[in-house]
Amino acid sequence: QVQLDESGGGLVQTGGSLRLSCAASGFLVNTYVTMGWFRQAPAKEREFVAVLVLSDDRPYYTKAVLGRFTIDKDNVQNMVYLQMNSLKPEDTAVYYCAASTSGGLFYTPREEKEFDSWGQGTQVTVSS
């Protein structure tokens, strides 16, 4: 069992930046070895954004955000972050933090079904 709480969403202009935070807690928090971010725009399905395999700090990004977004973690506190730079209107969505018990040296989960713990979401709106 793990609880995920996102924060940091808001309204920004095109080209602006936001930093999303996700706090993980619960007695089974250490069983989750991969943290990720997904997003869902209106009338669209939830899509993968970025993941971080915690064992070796190995990130993986969807092509649409590569070079603009960065996922990282806090080694002391159970926190994961998504730094979003050069935001575009197409980045507008509800962003969800997620945790997976899969992932390691030879595998990087990035499918929605591979993540079984989810936050409630935080709205990111990028205006033109």
Order of helices and strands: EEEEEEEEEEE
Structure class:
mainly beta
Uncertain stretches of 5 or more adjacent residues: none
Mean pLDDT: 95
Distance between the termini: 40 Å
- Shape, please? globular
What percentage of residues falls in helices of 4 or more residues? under 10%
SS field, number of helical segments: 0
| Number of DSSP E strands | 11
Strand content: over 45%
What is the CA-atom radius of gyration, in angstroms?
14 Å
* Largest sheet: number of strands, sense, barrel closure: 7 strands, mixed
Quick summary:
The protein has 128 residues and is mostly beta strands. It has strands at residues 3-7, 10-13, 18-25, 34-40, 47-53, 58-61, 69-74, 79-84, 93-100, 117-118, 122-127.
Give an account of the 3D structure.
- The protein is mainly beta and 128 residues long.
- It has strands at 3-7, 10-13, 18-25, 34-40, 47-53, 58-61, 69-74, 79-84, 93-100, 117-118, 122-127.
- Strands 2, 4, 5, 6, 9, 10 and 11 form a seven-stranded mixed β-sheet that branches. Strands 1-3-8-7 form a four-stranded antiparallel β-sheet, with no helix packed on it.
- The mean pLDDT is 95.
Essential attributes:
mainly beta, 0% helix, globular
Secondary-structure topology with pairs:
Layout lengths: L2 E5 L2 E4 L4 E8 L8 E7 L6 E7 L4 E4 L7 E6 L4 E6 L8 E8 L16 E2 L3 E6 L1
